[in-house]
């Protein structure tokens, strides 16, 4: 079974709850190599997303992702706001007007999200950013979809790969964003944006694929 607009809206509300639970953790990660606001930024953004989604009435999963995108762009701020906003916008575009997301659709949406982040932020894998979580998630999702995986299977492997990818940022020296100002001193810390991406992927896998 695919993921409907209603199911996706529930999944995003669950993702917002996960961000709320991890707000302080994201603040502390960003305190180590940034300006200690990533948790606040994400929490503000996803609280606004929940407020937009609560009334329902979205015809397609793409419409749900689009309102998520515009809300994040106007509320998150910082580097991550436009990046996540563009990610959700491109994911929305990838889905078009489909009424239920299947395995290949989920993989295509994730691909769109990554392309959006890269187009906007110009980061590559290894630069110690959210791309280090999202890029392996996209690869894993593609493989699972090609193997015939449904939306649950595709999102599950994406979440796993995203978690491993986020962990891979710990030893890296940041080459993009605020953390890059620290140079070598950025090594030894988990990137906050990679962590939030992994959290979002896990929440979506647990709920949108259910
Ligand atoms: P700011 O750095 O403006 O305070 P946030 O703290 O909300 O914004 O977000 C920081 C996160 O944004 C970083 O941990 C990193 O994952 C991500 N980021 C920053 N610059 C880029 C970029 N050019 N490409 C991809 N991700 C980036
Ligand atoms: Mg910050
Ligand atoms: Mg900031």
CATH class designation:
Mainly Alpha
> Order of strands in the sheet with the most strands?
1-2
Tally the beta strands.
2
Number of domains: 1
| Name of the CATH architecture | Alpha Horseshoe
The coarse silhouette is globular
Number of helices: 9
The helicity comes to 55-70%
Class based on secondary structure composition and strand pairing:
mainly alpha
SSE order, one letter for each helix or strand: EHHHHHEHHHH
Please give the radius of gyration in angstroms.
16 Å
The termini sit apart by 9 Å
Which small compounds were modeled alongside the protein?
adenosine-5'-diphosphate, magnesium ion
Describe the structure.
The protein has 210 residues and is an all-alpha fold. The chain has one domain (3-208): Alpha Horseshoe (Serine Threonine Protein Phosphatase 5, Tetratricopeptide repeat), CATH 1.25.40.340. It has 9 helices and 2 strands, in the order βαααααβαααα. The chain has helices at 5-21, 23-33, 38-53, 61-75, 80-95, 103-121, 131-146, 151-167, 192-208; strands at 3-4, 100-101. Strands 1-2 form a two-stranded antiparallel sheet. α1 (5-21) packs parallel to α4 (61-75) and α6 runs antiparallel to α7 (131-146). It is globular, with a radius of gyration of 16 Å. It binds adenosine-5'-diphosphate and magnesium ion (MG) (2 copies). Adenosine-5'-diphosphate binds at residues 30, 34-35, 37-38, 41, 78-80, 83, 117, 121-123, 129-131, 176-178, 191-194.
Keywords:
binds magnesium ion; 2% strand; two-stranded antiparallel sheet; 9 helices; Serine Threonine Protein Phosphatase 5, Tetratricopeptide repeat; binds adenosine-5'-diphosphate; mainly alpha; 2 strands; globular; 210 residues
């Amino acid at each position: 079974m695919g993921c409907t607009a209603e199911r996706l809206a529930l999944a995003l509300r669950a993702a917002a709850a996960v961000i709320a639970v991890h707000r302080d953790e994201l603040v502390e990660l960003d305190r180590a190599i940034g300006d200690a606001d990533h948790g606040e930024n994400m929490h503000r953004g996803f609280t606004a997303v929940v407020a937009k989604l609560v009334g329902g009435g979205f015809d397609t999963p793409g419409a749900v992702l689009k309102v998520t995108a515009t809300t994040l762009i106007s509320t998150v701020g910082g580097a991550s706001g436009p990046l996540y906003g563009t990610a959700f916008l491109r994911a929305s575009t990838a889905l078009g007007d489909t009424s239920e997301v299947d395995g290949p659709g989920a993989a295509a949406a994730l691909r769109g999200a990554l392309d959006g982040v890269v187009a906007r932020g110009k980061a590559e894998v290894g630069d110690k950013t959210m791309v280090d979580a999202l890029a392996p998630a996209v690869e894993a999702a593609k493989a699972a979809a090609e193997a015939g995986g449904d939306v649950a299977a595709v999102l599950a492997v994406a979440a796993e790969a995203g978690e491993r990818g986020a962990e891979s940022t710990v030893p890296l020296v940041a080459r993009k964003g605020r953390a890059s100002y620290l140079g070598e001193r950025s090594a030894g810390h988990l990137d906050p944006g990679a962590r939030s991406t992994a959290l979002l992927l896990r929440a979506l896998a647990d709920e949108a694929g259910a």
